[in-house]
């Protein structure tokens, strides 16, 4: 890593006053209490009083003593002069006439306030302990935090100030930070590459093959695996699932990297994902292997998420939504006819009720011909028109309350050809897992490749070969009551679409989940059980959402 990562402005701000301290900073760092005044009183002249006060405030504010103690904004001098009762602050200019005076006062302040030196110049036990603690902090932060060198430099300076360690020269600390970050990077590369070789000695070579450009192609395999789905179709889902299988063949779950901080792996994967294959080829070992492991692990989760996103999108936009829209359109189309028939029946029924009441009041014999004549005269409808309206209502409004839902499920069966291309890859995917509520759904999904290959014209599907618990009443009618199939045969196409709809629902509530994954992972995996830290499933699910 290049040592000079700080800009000129940052170097200047490290040891100089770039701007006037705010009022809050003046009150925090340059306010003189009783102890400060006692330290200042050890000097005799007003110029020395003011100079010592400036050095006390400066070491609090900047964490170090300035090479020129008087290189501070003049309002700071005025602020201190008022507190010390010095009428003429300009006499502070005589403070550095004797150069050694400033150093003697700095040593006095260091000893009085318990500041420690840097770079092993401390001979006290406390100073050595602080030096060890600082290196432990620096190495630990460089290993666990994926932050840039400037951020680590700022954190190091803040730690030194908190622990009253005088800041060293800017280049000294800059070189130390660069060295520690380089050691952390080397440790990361070596650890990941070593774990990859332990999992499979041929894995590094196999991953390196991703950087090679196959014959007849314009880009490497890694570039191909980076490409996410671009269209919404069954064929595109087939390619997305094939992408998942191509990455899963490396079995990167075998590589044990649990001891590597997650942030470091993500940063390494981000670097690999944003680099072209020729650049990755030029990396030295073990950095190249570690980068390929990180980027391929990340791509595996992304590929699974992309495939399931596309599956959910296809189910919503190509299967369920079109059928619902068609059902809504058909229902709207029949409303005028239903309204006309219902209005006619309403008028005829009212007339019949009134006539029957009159017959009952007069205690007369019922005359059907007279009743129909009254209906024709008052309702304006003949007997034939009333019967035709009755037939229309019975046709448009079946006796079964679930008929509309059953009709929609029957229409979904026509979408079998849309889902057929990806049934094999979906059923054979090892990325899917299930909680207790989704195990039956996942078991049915595992059978989809077999059902897709089955020639149902020669060997019909039987009821005992399907899981009826996955079906709603509407689906049972579509699966078991197809009039075009032999008696007792199950509609394979309807059952497959029913299983896919159940999978879509189970994925939505994560009864079926994917691993590794970012968006479709099991939310229960972050919950713990047992003891006082136990969480309820409902609380955990609400927290995960």
Features of this protein?
545 residues, mainly alpha, two-stranded antiparallel ribbon, 2 strands
Summarize the structure in words:
By secondary structure, the protein is mostly helical. About 2% of the residues have low confidence.
The ordered string of helix (H) and strand (E) elements is HHHHHHHHHHHHHHHHHHHHEHHHHEH
Instruction: Give the overall shape.
Output: elongated
Residues in helices, as a percent range: 55-70%
Question: Low-confidence runs (pLDDT<50, min 5 residues)?
Answer: 528-537
Oligomer: single chain
Number of helices: 25
Q: Mean of residue pLDDT?
A: 85
| Strand adjacency order, main sheet | 1-2
What class do helices, strands and sheet pairing give? Answer: mainly alpha
The radius of gyration computed from the alpha-carbon positions, rounded to a whole number of angstroms, is 40 Å
- What is the CA-CA span between the terminal residues? 41 Å
> What percentage of amino acids are in beta strands?
under 5%
Q: Tell me about the biggest sheet? A: 2 strands, antiparallel
Q: Would you count the extended β strands for me?
A: 2
Characterize this entry briefly:
It contains 25 helices and 2 strands.
Topology:
Blueprint: H1 8-15, H2 23-29, H3 34-40, H4 46-62, H5 74-84, H6 99-113, H7 125-144, H8 149-162, H9 170-199, H10 203-208, H11 221-226, H12 234-248, H13 262-273, H14 277-281, H15 287-362, H16 368-379, H17 383-396, H18 403-413, H19 416-419, H20 423-428, E1 432-434, H21 439-446, H22 448-453, H23 473-480, H24 492-508, E2 512-514, H25 537-544
Antiparallel strand pairs: 1-2
